[in-house]
Amino acid sequence: MAHCTKCGAAVGDNVAFCPACGAPQSAHNPAPAATSGQSGLQENAAGALCYVLGWITGLIFFFIDKRPYVRFHATQSIVVFGALTILSEILSNVFGFSFLAGGVTGFSLGFALWRLLHLLGVILWLLLIIKAYQGERFRIPIAADLADKIFGKS
pTM of whole model > 0.90? Predict the structure, then answer.
């Protein structure tokens, strides 16, 4: 079954117009949903690639691929890794001096929190790439709901 080139909804083979948005469909080259889409990749590979460079690849796939599965992973990538980037910047600005000084003992709470945030980011990054490649819509509880509110349901 093919997907609409405008909204990404599933349309039947040789259908002239999308039943969801009414956009005209070309009957010449329908791309099968299981093999490739607008980005030229399989859905699971495109979903996994949404996370590779964090929110940057999330933005790229959000704009170039309209398939609902890929858009879900793109929006979740933007929210999760965008929030982690913002939190990392806030921590580095608030505790900036303690990163350099390290206190008397060489340990600073700010540096420990910053490293913990980065460890959380790496774990989420690997988990989300693996789950997307396996074809799952793995939802990070707060981030997925926020992505649905900001970007709309995918």
Answer: no
